[in-house]
Design a protein that fits this description.
Chain lengths: 367, 105
Amino acid sequence: MSQLMMEMSNKALDLNVPLSVQVDLTYRCNERCVHCYLDHDDHGEMTTAEIKHLMDEMAEAGVFILTLSGGEIFVRKDFFELLEYARQLTFCVKLKTNAILIREREAARLRDLGVESIQISIYSHRPEVHDAITLVPGSLKRSVDAIRFLKSQGLKVIIANVLMTGNMEDYPGVRALAAELGVECTLDPTITPMMDGNRSTLELGIDQTALRQVFRDVSLVGDADEFCAIPAPPGDDELNALPCSAGHSACYVSPYGDVFPCVQFPLPTGNVRQQRFIDIWRYSDRMNEVRSIRVKDLSTCTSCTHVSNCTRCPGLAFMEGNMRGPSSQDCQKSFARTGVPSANMLSKQRPDPNLVQIRALPTFAIA
Amino acid sequence: MSRLYLARNPRAAARSLDGEMMIMSGRDSTLFTLNKTATILWQSADGTTPLDEIVAHRICPEFEVEPAVALRDAENLARELASHEIMQISELPIAPRNSLPGEAR
């Protein structure tokens, strides 16, 4: 994030302005990625008119960065109509897509409409690996072709590479592909539970050994010793810091109009079909509860070695049952980085002091 | 002396945050914030109102400055904004590429 963007984010925070919003236009998708947390069905998506009305309200509320995502955004037949409307309202529009429906014509139109960036999911440079994750034969070729079309229009493309057990070894190949295509590449080892609470997708996540490999890869982290160093104890600034931007200067709207603090934080705070967006943002009790939490309020994490530089996700913590609690995936990341177990990990190793331990009686020798 | 016309670059993104205009260049995603004068230029850049009229009607009353000085400064500012592809400038009126539903908020 640039210094100026940070300044504007801080200003938005002070003014309680939702500077950045992700709107999922649909949960329908033309891929069936094995790790996806969505159900791919349409349970009553917002209409074209409803989304345009939402965009009007968001512009009025001061939203600047509008991320359009899904599902797959291009399966909505009104996608370009919505995008054009968003750009007329002068949003900075970012797209997240698998890109397999983007050809030369769509790329040219995206360029004409002034889209800021397009993030495209690529899981491997090898078709047999990528396509085995998307479950769509030929999907890697189509996504890579789309990246070339977009680049030829001068558009900014970012490859998003989610790391799983099935593609862990391929991230250097994806990075090489990104370099060849002249695009950025981001790496993310986070797997999210499914929206219905099913946590089976988490089994696809990479293990400690693989995490350690990633965090020690100097091509990714620069100075590995510095990156993996045990953090200094937190000062007042760290303890009074916000856990993340969710609900503070950013939020998420589902295809059904439900507003959440973040796409990864499934705490419903209101619905734009029933209330004005800005009223949900400002007055929702749940949004304000999220907003009230500081690092010092976190139940287990405040006593943790990693508290001052942990990547703890409040949404993942919420999905584990406590928005003020730890996020185990991030505990694992901190452990992999430093070799020091988190407070949460240590507490799980200790027997619960309130439980009466039942032990076998000593054996008596009978004379 | 030829007149200068200004239009907002339709590929730029913009939003006012507590009166401070944020603009993201459509060329390279660089973020800018505009000062008060530049904000007036941005808001008035409809492609058909010449710069000297913008200066006379919007800038001079706001800043109590000599019209000739204000016009020279505004022209320099407009050229700088154009160099970042935030704005388009021309000696002829500029036809809109995208019809905006209203002023940038």
